[in-house]
């Protein structure tokens, strides 16, 4: 099987109650770069990570949504976010399913789960 030079990727589309506030959190606190922004949609990128946000009318959407980000860069991200004082940053620990993970809730309730297998560290 030939591997395409531009493989398909999954990109989460998360809910935002305020696009400007999401922009400020992801760019200002988490170190993403803004890719696109208008009143109802936001795209942010950092290295190979890309997140999209749509303007949601109700807290039920972001408070029941999550995204899993996996890879070897996770250890460095945890240290960076800890040094930046990112609020609602969990401990970085091995979970019962044998993944070393940490969590962040964004200002609207979206759960970002960062993880890697302990063997990747």
Name some characteristics of this structure.
antibiotic resistance, VOC_core, four-stranded mixed sheet, alpha/beta, single chain, Bleomycin resistance protein, globular, 121 residues, 2,3-Dihydroxybiphenyl 1,2-Dioxygenase, domain 1, 18% helix, Glyas_Bleomycin-R_OHBP_Dase, 8 strands
Description:
This is Bleomycin resistance protein. By secondary structure, the chain is of the alpha/beta class. It has a single domain (13-120), classed as 2,3-Dihydroxybiphenyl 1,2-Dioxygenase, domain 1 (Roll). It contains two helices and eight strands, in the order βαββββαβββ. It has helices at 19-29, 74-84; strands at residues 13-16, 33-37, 41-46, 49-55, 66-70, 93-94, 100-105, 111-116.
Total domain units: 1
Would you identify the CATH H-level superfamily?
2,3-Dihydroxybiphenyl 1,2-Dioxygenase, domain 1
CATH architecture: Roll
Work out the strand percent.
25-35%
Give the assembly state of these chains: single chain
Keywords: Antibiotic resistance
InterPro entries: Bleomycin-R, Glyas_Bleomycin-R_OHBP_Dase, Glyas_Fos-R_dOase_dom, VOC_core
GO biological process, one term: response to antibiotic
Domain VOC: 8-117
């Amino acid at each position: 099987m030939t591997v395409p030079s531009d493989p398909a990727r999954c990109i989460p589309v998360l809910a935002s109650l305020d696009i400007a506030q999401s922009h400020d959190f992801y760019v200002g606190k988490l170190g993403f770069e803004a890719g696109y922004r208008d009143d109802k949609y936001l795209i942010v990128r950092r290295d190979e990570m890309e997140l999209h946000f749509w303007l949601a009318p109700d807290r039920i959407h972001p408070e029941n949504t999550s995204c899993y980000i996996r890879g070897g860069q996770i250890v460095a991200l945890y240290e960076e976010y800890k040094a930046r004082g990112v609020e609602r940053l969990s401990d970085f620990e091995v979970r019962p399913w044998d993944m070393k993970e940490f969590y962040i809730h964004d200002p609207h309730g979206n759960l970002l789960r960062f993880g890697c297998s302990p063997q990747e560290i």
